[in-house]
From TrEMBL, chains A, C:
Pathway: Pyrimidine metabolism; UMP biosynthesis via de novo pathway; orotate from (S)-dihydroorotate (NAD(+) route): step 1/1. Residues 4-286 form the Dihydroorotate dehydrogenase catalytic domain. It comes from Virgibacillus halodenitrificans. NCBIfam families: PRK07259.1, pyrD_sub1_fam. PROSITE patterns: DHODEHASE_1, DHODEHASE_2. Substrate binds at residues 45, 69-73, 127, 192-193. This is Dihydroorotate dehydrogenase. The lineage of its organism: Bacteria, Bacillati, Bacillota, Bacilli, Bacillales. Its EC number is 1.3.-.-. It is found in: Cytoplasm. Binds 1 FMN per subunit. The gene is pyrD.
Automatic annotation (TrEMBL), chains B, D:
Belongs to the PyrK family. Its cofactor is [2Fe-2S] cluster; FAD. It comes from Virgibacillus halodenitrificans (Bacillus halodenitrificans). GO terms for molecular function: 2 iron, 2 sulfur cluster binding; electron transfer activity; flavin adenine dinucleotide binding; metal ion binding; oxidoreductase activity. [2Fe-2S] cluster binds at residues 215, 220, 223, 237. This is Dihydroorotate dehydrogenase B (NAD(+)), electron transfer subunit. Binds 1 [2Fe-2S] cluster per subunit. The lineage of its organism: Bacteria, Bacillati, Bacillota, Bacilli, Bacillales. Heterotetramer of 2 PyrK and 2 PyrD type B subunits.
């Protein structure tokens, strides 16, 4: 039998598949489609210190093999998430990862600290790469010093392992990865969305109310694979890979590139069963390409 | 509950200018869908599904009808699907129209591609013994569809923007032609909904909204609309697409 | 009649459509499909100081709505291009733009100087953004100081207007654009390809012999539109836009975003007639969206 | 000259395991194509065209036949095209096989999806009155195709890797079964071409090569191969895909 298990800081995953932050809400809707206990883990939608409404609509646009989104971190705030959403998710036999965001280091720290009170949460994903909010978010994600600082501050207050989610909108992704590793990150999560825009020909204006949005989906997979491949050679912490994962072959490609687990975002919108199906298909794909376990694959495609 | 189903296209008809009617076969959705709900349809080559209102169901034939206007590349592609092909569909999505027992005469106001959900609703209301009056707005004579179908339900006023058929003007111009209704239901482009809800401010009414969608099931927060208490929000895909006219802020 | 003409430094274009560098060779092959005199301009394949063989094969890979390439600047060298290719292209009534590349500032300068001896060449496109060569190329394109320096040095020796071709693989594209504008660039050309990778599941190795390649095609259009939109607000030199242009609607979207002309790359491989067809379709598309000339559209979609 | 044409699929057959034969209708290509040339085929949903060798032409019926193995997503999709549908094709691309007047007995060596161009060539050679011997290698019995067609041209030796049909082994193992030929032509996977050219180093021969392509017409420099003088290069799509065995460095 193919062994799908993988062990990461704070996470004993039964398989390497998890929904990506923001693409699965807090799991309620998708729990109607299949049993979430099947998932390796679940990454929740971003939590901020207080409730946020987010950007105006339209918030999404379709692009070739992808989409743009500018949700703007809408969420009920960390307290409410701990009170109402985490308990629901803890009904399932899967690891809960909390994605945390903020406009200031203080906010990140406060959110991280709050999750210490939620024993059901197994790890934090530090979202320093959201391109869709005016303050914070991506600024932290493009400056290695700021990225290191927010990582270190969050590590100081948090009892949980911290996976830092990197932005692809940088000249040197390896530099960013090394900076947060040095600052104490337990793992990396990459990639977040590429900044993009679509202009509506009729209105002659950017289609999204926020003007720019984050590009996700299959279109960005080659960028994700390249960055994971490069970063995995220069850090010793594990990587949760994401960016366009749609098929079991994609999962294998991410693992070969050096990811230790894989998150699925946009593909959930096309196929709500996608994570469940990937988990079912993974053993035979591993087998087809001559692997007997997930851990066997990780980084095998990396050429130095 | 929303399911992901394969639906056979059993009939495809062009029913007006750039307007296509698809009859789809599926037992589950035909038995469970309520007026106001929609299907979320995967179109080959497109990353996001397309939401389309259910225009009618036939429980015996186990079919669902949708009507759509060829708008951009996704609906263009969908218009090229042929009889016998299958569609990958999520449905039925959203909450349908709420129907108040005590309302007897009901005004339906549909504009353009907002007309289809009004038909499913109208049929349903008539089956429940209610009286239905319909005002349907279209761009021009060539765009008019389902006139006979609505006539069969009750008095029907057709309005065209250019006056090439029926009354000239907007659906709001035709409101003076009707009186004595207990409640209205409307679906159409945002400017129309704004005009209708403003003009019928004193009446009880329900509106069906459109917004660009990601997931279509309530997970991605793409399709929110602020509630009128300036405090909360609703998800159009999950809490809607139908809302009470006073509930949300257009 | 819709006026498709547009005037740019050194270029009087009869329409804003031109094939992008590297995707049209030196025009010979496509001249069998249609009369190249129809084109607004032609951007030649990159020229280096001496002949280059480029990278090993495979050099291309397909991706969702795009492709990766790692040609590695194969070309016969600037002298041979001036002797054999420029004369062929000057048979056509269209502007010739020479794309120049190098591994060192000296090489860029030498190539630029050589083109002074080719009166048929109307402008230079300074390729500081090729991700597929070991030295030079993208280094110049991700460091504003180096970019400014190579621009200034080339400007010093060249009699021709210089369009600097920017790389999208940067944290801050506006900074890059301003740096080269200040250094004397007459125009910008953007975007070059995004760095990407594909891993072959069977061989467990990067599919391209060069490992990484440049991602082009429709997949990257939202990134291009965003960058052009942002840059056009901060520079006063014109932009030749590119990245995924496939349809006349795309051309309009690039013009709205702030481009003054549009180059078409990858789409030539799908449809060798694409540039010719876009030129035919442009008037009716402009008309459909209420424009009477190309110059009327430029930057109309930019919201500050 | 290469043209961009629409080709009607007039026949689609599965002729072996994962192997599809398409017969395509087009006057221009059927009249002008030479053995060794290929078509560059646009497949819906795919950004790069797929190169496929011409396996035969029928000038009277104005048809062209291609044969392909379902390999990745593009050929999978192509295998789903149905009779009556159209393909967007560039062709005929590349240079065909050079045929020397003075050669009388010709050995054809095809491996797998390298077999199709050998058939077009073989038919052409026989029409010119030459004698043809064919060695065709396949993975297993299930993959064998066109045996009768080749038999009709001359002596044919089938080799399968697993020995489930014909001789067991590689095409090079079957070379000992033939003698006295003036020239050989071969097409197949790179390891096979390397083995064949090494073994037949003393003979005059032509090889047909594969490489991942962008434009397919010679503009993008995707498909180059170094020449044996260690100095220059050739473009497989434009200068090839057929080369003299001594011309390029495999
Ligand atoms: C709940 C609901 C019910 C609908 N019912 C119908 C119906 O019965 N008949 C009908 O013709 N149309 C209906 N629409 C509108 C229909 O979904 C759009 O016309 C269609 O999605 C446009 O797709 P496209 O590919 O043609 O356009 P494109 O502009 O290419 O679409 C690009 C993206 O924008 C989205 N989009 C574009 N226009 C709209 C819009 N008006 N509303 C929501 N998303 C949009 C698309 O879904 C897609 O994700 C409904 C919309 C909603 C939200
Ligand atoms: C001149 C020439 C003639 C050919 N003739 C035939 C033929 O007659 N029958 C046949 O079955 N196959 C032939 N091939 C190989 C055929 O082109 C590939 O099998 C096919 O392109 C694979 O596409 P895919 O979508 O199945 O594979 P994928 O791996 O998904 O393809 C991805 C990309 O790689 C390219 N690619 C993958 N494998 C090859 C390959 N072996 N050679 C070139 N490009 C490749 C594809 O064209 C595409 O751009 C020929 C190749 C060349 C260059
Ligand atoms: C609608 C949407 C909302 C998202 N929200 C978040 C978020 O709240 N926090 C976060 O870190 N990433 C968010 N992302 C980014 C995804 O988690 C993921 O990194 C990215 O989409 C790439 O993966 P994909 O191509 O599989 O979608 C969001 C993406 C989408 C499409
Ligand atoms: C095969 C290939 C070769 C290229 N060669 C060059 C080159 O020599 N010089 C250059 O500046 N850009 C080169 N480019 C980049 C294109 O000119 C263009 O900037 C990029 O492909 C984006 O446009 P597109 O999406 O329309 O292809 C090349 C692109 C491709 C696909
Ligand atoms: S479309 Fe995702 S929440 Fe409504
Ligand atoms: S494929 Fe472009 S040169 Fe051969």
């Amino acid at each position: 039998m193919t062994d799908l298990r993988i062990e990461l800081p704070g996470l004993q995953l039964k398989n390497p598949i998890m929904p990506a932050s923001g693409c699965f809400g807090f799991g309620r809707e998708y729990s109607n489609f299949y049993d979430l206990s099947k998932l390796g883990a679940i990454i929740m939608k971003a939590a901020t210190g207080t409730k946020r409404y987010g950007n105006n609509t339209p918030r999404v646009a379709e692009t070739s093999s992808g989409m743009l989104n500018a949700i703007g971190l809408q969420n009920p705030g960390v307290e409410k998430i701990i009170a109402s959403e985490v308990p629901f998710l803890s009904n399932f036999d899967t690891s809960i990862i909390a994605n945390i965001a903020g406009s200031s280091i203080e906010e990140y720290v406060a959110v991280a600290a709050a999750f210490n009170e939620a024993p059901q949460v197994a790890a934090l994903e530090l979202n320093i790469s959201c391109p869709n909010v005016k303050e914070g978010g991506i600024q932290f994600g493009t400056d290695p010093l700021m990225a290191a600082e927010v990582t270190a501050m969050v590590k100081r207050v948090s009892d949980l392992p911290v996976y830092v989610k990197l932005s692809p909108n940088v000249s040197n992704i390896v530099e960013m990865a090394k900076a947060v590793e040095k600052a104490g990150a337990d793992g990396l999560s990459m990639i977040n969305t590429l900044t993009g825009m679509q202009i509506n020909l009729k209105s002659r204006k950017p289609l999204l109310a926020n003007k720019t949005g984050g590009l996700s989906g299959q279109a960005i997979k080659p960028v994700a694979i390249r960055m994971i491949h490069d970063v995995s050679q220069h850090v010793s912490i594990p990587i949760i890979g994401m960016g366009g994962v749609t098929s079991a072959e994609d999962v294998l490609e991410f693992l070969l590139a050096g990811a230790s687990a894989v998150a699925v975002g946009t593909a959930n919108f096309q196929n709500p069963f996608v994570c469940s199906e990937l988990i079912d298909e993974l053993p035979s794909i591993l087998d087809k390409y001559g692997f007997s376990s997930v851990s066997d694959v990780i980084g095998k495609g990396v050429i130095v | 509950m929303i399911k992901k189903v394969e639906m056979l296209i059993s009939q495809r008809r062009i029913i007006a200018l750039d307007t296509v009617e698809l009859t789809l076969k599926n037992k589950y959705i035909s038995q469970t869908a309520r007026p106001g709900q929609f299907l979320h349809i995967l179109v080959e080559g497109h990353s996001l599904r397309r939401p389309l209102s259910i225009a009618s169901i036939n429980k015996v034939a186990e079919t669902i009808t949708v009507l759509f206007k060829i708008n951009g590349p996704g609906t263009k592609k969908l218009s090229e699907y042929k009889n016998g092909m299958y569609l990958d569909v999520l449905g039925p999505n959203g909450n349908g129209f709420q129907i108040e027992e005590h309302d007897n005469t009901i005004l339906l106001i549909g504009g353009g591609i907002g007309v289809p959900p009004m038909y499913f609703l109208g049929k349903h209301l008539v089956e429940q013994g209610k009286k239905v009056i319909s005002i349907l707005g279209f761009q021009s004579a060539g765009h008019v569809f389902y006139e006979d179908e609505f006539e069969a339900l009750g008095r029907t006023i057709i309005v065209t923007n250019d006056g090439s058929y029926g009354e000239k003007g907007f659906v709001t111009d035709a409101l003076r032609l009707v009186e004595d209704f207990d409640c209205y239901y409307t679906c159409g482009p945002l400017p129309m909904l704004k005009a209708v809800t403003a003009k019928l401010n004193d009446c009880s009414g329900y509106i069906s909204l459109e917004e660009r969608m990601g997931c279509g099931v309530g997970a991605c927060f793409a399709c929110v609309i602020p509630t009128n208490d300036h405090f909360g929000y609703k998800k159009i895909c999950k809490d809607g697409p139908v809302f009470h006219s006073k509930e949300v802020s257009l």
